[in-house]
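Fig. S4 source data, part A: sequence.
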Amino acid sequence: MSYNVAVALKPIPSNEQDAWEWVNRMAELDNDSPPQVFHDLIDVLTSRYPCICNLDDELVDVQGVWSDGPLRDNITLVAPVLGIVYSKVDEVLPFLIETANSLELTVFDWNTEKIYRPLSSTST
């Protein structure tokens, strides 16, 4: 198990219940041509926290923060789902949210039932 969040591009319903229903559908739909912003997100995230596929086997449990890899494979959904190992959530999640929001992406945190929208959007 891992701590999973979804990231999504606008437009996203402004009503919280509608937004959750929307992301739950989009997190299951394939996207054969992910937008560049999802690639940008992965680039920034992995510049700080490398994909577990790029770590030596003996370092995965020590330095790895992602629950699966290659991390870039996760962006092939309309609303990509990224998994963080539980022991690293407090460190990684704020960076993930800040990074995603700076790229105008919204983060859906199923564990806390919070939606983190970019500052240019209505916050929930």
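Fig. S4 source data, part B ends here. The longest helix spans residues 89-102.
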